[in-house]
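Structure tokens please, single chain.
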Amino acid sequence: MPKRTYRSRTRSRVVVPIILSVTMTAAVSPAVTAAPAHQQGAFESIASPKERVNRAIVLGFYTALNRGNFGHLDNVVRPDLIQHYPAIADGRAAFRAYHAGLRNQNPDLRYTVKRTIAQNDLVVTHSHFVGKAGDAGVAKINLFRLDKGKIAEHWEVNEAVRPPGTGNDMFSTLSSPRISKSLPFATDAESEHVARAAFVEIVNQPDDELRLQALDRYIGDNPYYQHFPNVPNGSGALQQFIHDAFAAQPDYRANVKTVVAEGDLVAVFVHLENLFDMKNGVGADLYRVRDGKLLEHWVVIEPTPPTSANPNTMY
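Here you go.
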């Protein structure tokens, strides 16, 4: 996928009340941005009208999947859909057949969208899929490109939900305020800059000392709430994880492919090479950025299969 460069948002003047907990639905409220001087309890909208429409279309897609209304896909997905998920062929018909088959296997399946990021023609969703009641389910990060009100291209990364271990669960928001929506404590450009710099100077830095310096620049005293199972909070744990990755595979690399930012939330899609025993894979990392530093992190990682139903890369 070609590198995309996005504008910073112009903040509007429409104020909406703060919500302390969020459950995403098809009729989701628009993303929010800060009132002057970040007045507590009020935020202004940061999404453009087009971005709000795109987000609503994607959330409506999930509502249709939860209801088994596959006819709705004919309304919101282009017939020539470009597909990047290996289990699905190109085209709307294959996309619809895949989801119909999934529901046949799991009649009570449920997608719960935890957070979204919308920027220009792209929408990212972080969701929890549960096929059967009682199952731990699957963490999913999806990327949709929309064209004239329809989903034109789709990427997907899946990982089975794992218990927190020494870390936190894979979905919650722990940083304050504990809101899953994008907030106006950073601009799109600021969040993108910090996320890209973190991959260059931290994630892909083999030198321990240089990485420590970058961790101080981009995390500092922040608790760095970590939602990667079995990795604790804090920059020290991240330093150890990356040290171990390079020790196991000196040619380890996370190649940034696409960055999507909305306010203080940013998604980074990467091609992973030689991460421990995974030769090739794809990762989708979500960060909350505050004051030029990383505050919270969620991630989904999936190995690249040997074959694909479509001719496109996963990233």
